[in-house]
Amino acid sequence: MEITEALERAHKQKDVDEKLQGKCFCSALSFLDGWKTGSWELNFYDEGAHKIMSVSVGEEVKIKDEGSPFKPEGSQIHTIEISKLSVTANRALDIAKEYYDKNYKSLEVQRLFFALHGAKVPYWVVSVITKNLAIVAINVDAHDGKVSAKVHQFSMGKGKKAS
Question: Cβ neighbours of residue 25 under 8 Å, at least 6 residues apart?
Answer without folding.
Answer: 7, 42, 43, 44, 45, 79, 80, 81, 82, 118
